[in-house]
Amino acid sequence: MNSANVAAQLEKRVLRKVAVRLMPFLCLLYFVNYLDRVNIGFAGPNGMNQELGLTATVFGFASGIFFIGYLVLEVPSNLALHRFGARKWLARIMITWGVVATVMAFVPNATTLVVLRFLLGVAEAGFFPGIILYLTFWFPAAQRAKAVALFMAAVPISSAIGATVSSVLISGGHGVFGLSGWRFMFLVEGVPAILLAAVTWFYLTDRPEQAKWLAAEEREWLAGKLAEEQRETEAKHHWPLRKALTHPRILALAFVYFGIAYGLYALGFFLPTIIAGFEQQYGTDLSTVESGLVTALPYAIGAVAMVVWASHGDRTRERVWHVALPMLLGGVSIPVALYLGNPYAAMLAVTFCAVGVCAALPTFWALPSNFLSGAAAAGGIALINSLGNVSGFAAPYITGALRDVTGSQRAGLWVVGVVMVAAAMLVIFLRAAPKRG
Prior knowledge:
Distance between the termini: 41 Å
CATH topology: Growth Hormone, Chain: A
Number of helices: 21
Radius of gyration: 21 Å
Number of strands: 0
Shape: globular
Number of domains: 1
Largest sheet: none
């Protein structure tokens, strides 16, 4: 067997071991993370809004204020992870967010709900960009989009499974411990983050050089491969941390991510409400659990599309159109959803939007890693994520406010479409990486 075949087999073996060791656990962490972030979307139309006296605008504000807290500490948190290591820092994040998420079960009024949602954002800051950064420590550039896709498949999976789980907890948990169903859901879904923090501390490995679960030859190959790529990136682009935090290209990428996330959060927070509105619009009659199952369908299809599309992007080494095309699909589809004559056609349009959002997400994160490394990657990725996630505040707040003003979801969904299409045009203009550092 020649040396090229030996090297290829070594690479395949190492990356398989890394994927099997890390990806299922990271997906589980993100599943719990994302569920705790968006479960307010299920609580709202299932008793919380009525019990706390929330208008659509206040509900949207409470949903979105999370991301203001998230924005404040995102960059410092990711720099801390780069300094102290993922194992310790992710465990710290999970304990604090788990405590806040659990306390939300006992919220007495709208003001307290808003405060706790803000604190939840502060607690979670750094989790997502921290794992995106962590994946760059373990996967070479050619396999990175697929790795991110496998990790981010937890988003549509948590939205799909989480929709059903949350609906079952709300329906079956009403009266348990004397709590309303939506309060019981917050309580049950907050605890896993605290428990998983302890597992994270002992299970994760910060860097390949420390991985005792890899053979010495495997550790040496992976560490050498990643170090070589980092040297090439720094030689070609050489972006220091200050440049990564101030360059217009980073701000432009943040808007692109804003567009993707705007669609994601508009769906996440208001799809249950939209489906609940089918009863008035189309005469449907769905139970809480049935509504959860219907909500799950677009995300289940989106999860498959996410992995398949990212794998295709890795094979072809093309990134820009693998971000832009699904964004255009999602942006065109979502405003159409509520103009259609029956719930099946409306759900088909919503599903196209979910597929577009999910397919664009993982490949997007291959764009900044083309020219960022080290501390610049930690800061730049965190800044893109934090600014982009302002959409998590804007999407539910604007959608809710337009619902209150117009009496319909249509205006809010038109805004979603416009933002996604504009972001798609921008990523085409930017192309994959700067020509020079």
